[in-house]
Amino acid sequence: MKNSDLLKRVNALGFSLFGAEEDKNANLTLADMVRSHDLRLWEGFPVVLANSAEKGLFNYDKVNWYLRKPFDKPYLLSLVDLSLALYKFFNLKFSWADEFYYSLSVARRRKVAVFLEKLKSDGELDVAGSELSAQRLKTVFNNYFSQAQNKLNELLSVKDELGLEYSLSQVFSPKQKELFLKKLKREKLTKTEKEYFSRAVKKKVLALANPELHRLSQKLLD
């Protein structure tokens, strides 16, 4: 298997490295990340695991089944435990992660606790004999979720703008809406625009601003 193909599949599951847009088998991708022994891919493992599990695609037994070589299986154990510790570090509440954690043996829960302490102290993380940087792992994970939050905020902003556009269109004509927005943005109006605003738009604005009208409108919608 070529790493370039794996990187494309990893990107499709949330850990962007090159910009491909492909939908591949999540469990196989996670297994391939484990056996790649590529530390930068391991740093992205918690991101891909979270995305896969949130979409209902993650099955631990299937990932483990794909790992044919016995020496790769301890890496999977460590990477999953490390991921759980990272989610706890960032105080992320994933129901699937909580269920998975409570299904672990006492020994593995202790391992998660050790990883968590290392993350808090920026110590080196021992993943079945290989070392990962706690600082780098946190940075990679935090950067991804910051980008995801920004995308969500952009989406909500667009949704709000569309809602506002629709509401304005119910009250104002296209020209009136244009003047309303220009006035709101404190843009300069021509003499003709000022006159039209005062004659037609301002009256509607005053009506909309009337608290009693707003109260009665809300009552009608109840």
What general form does the structure show?
A: elongated
| Overall tally of structural domains | 2
Strand content: under 5%
Distance between the termini: 60 Å
Give me the Rg, rounded: 27 Å
Helix content: over 70%
In short:
The protein is 74% helix and 4% strand. With 222 residues, the protein is mainly α. The protein folds into 2 domains: 3-144, no CATH class; 172-221, no CATH class.
Protein model, in words:
The protein has a two-stranded antiparallel ribbon. The chain is built from eleven helices and two strands; from the N terminus they run αααααααββαααα. By secondary structure, the protein is mainly α. 74% of the residues lie in helices and 4% in strands.
Topology diagram in text:
Blueprint: H1 3-12, H2 26-36, H3 39-54, H4 60-66, H5 73-89, H6 95-102, H7 106-121, E1 124-127, E2 130-133, H8 134-171, H9 174-184, H10 191-209, H11 211-221
Antiparallel strand pairs: 1-2
Summary tags:
74% helix, two-stranded antiparallel sheet, 4% strand, mainly alpha, 2 domains, elongated, 222 residues
